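lol forgot to send this yesterday, sorry. struct tokens for the thing we talked abt
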């Protein structure tokens, strides 16, 4: 197995980890974040598990970019570096949301003191903002950076990055709509806007895991040295 195949295998596996770990936390934390009273009656465990799963999600996000960097760099160095940066920003926002959830767990374990209810609601707002800007917006940036390189270099079938390139503006528009209060982030419209990106991430993960990338060498223009006559 070549180093490129190994890197693609790791990247594909991590992409599927990000896909799988992005759904359960929503189901675990949504009821509690809507009703903080559950934290004072023993509801800390689901929120704690959501935080643990999202830590795995954040680590996998960075891992996909690190694994793909040596593959993508020869075909677009700036976009490859930008993909690492955008994935790192996404992971950082996810971890900030995890910190907010862990603080809520601590508040619940302390009995959910009513005096701290205002701070607890502020932590929920912090979590919601990080969720909007992290998993809600950054995948659009990721798709534009990575998808454009994969599409141009034909490292995978073009239909796969095309899904990401189509989904990126839809997801960005949905996130901006939520930011300005025009759209609810958890709504059928937002779900439809996120569908192409979800298909892109799942399909690129499966393809990298099963097939890897095409062995394509970037085309470079060779400049032949022209002999220069030197007068005696």
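and heres what i got for the seq, position by position
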């Amino acid at each position: 197995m070549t180093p490129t195949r190994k890197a693609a295998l790791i990247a594909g596996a991590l992409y599927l980890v990000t896909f799988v770990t992005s759904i359960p936390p929503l189901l675990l934390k949504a009821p509690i974040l809507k009703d903080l009273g559950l934290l004072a009656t023993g509801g800390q465990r689901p929120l704690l598990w959501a935080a643990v799963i999202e830590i795995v999600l954040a680590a996998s996000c960075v891992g996909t970019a690190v694994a793909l960097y040596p593959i993508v760099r020869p075909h677009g160095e700036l976009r490859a570096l930008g993909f690492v940066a955008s994935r790192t920003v996404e992971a950082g926002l996810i971890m900030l949301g995890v910190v907010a959830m862990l603080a809520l767990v601590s508040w619940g374990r302390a009995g959910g003191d009513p005096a701290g209810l205002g701070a607890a609601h502020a932590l929920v707002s912090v979590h919601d903002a990080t969720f909007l800007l992290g998993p809600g917006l950054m995948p659009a940036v990721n798709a534009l950076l990575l998808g454009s390189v994969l599409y141009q270099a034909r490292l995978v079938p073009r239909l796969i990055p095309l899904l990401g390139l189509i989904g990126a503006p839809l997801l960005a528009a949905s996130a901006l709509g939520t930011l300005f209060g025009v759209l609810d982030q958890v709504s059928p419209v937002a779900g439809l806007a996120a569908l192409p990106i979800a298909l892109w991430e799942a399909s690129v993960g499966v393809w990298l895991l099963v097939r890897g990338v095409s062995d394509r060498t970037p085309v470079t223009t060779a400049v032949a040295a022209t002999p220069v006559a030197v007068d005696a």
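The longest helix spans residues 77-109. anyway ping me if u want another try
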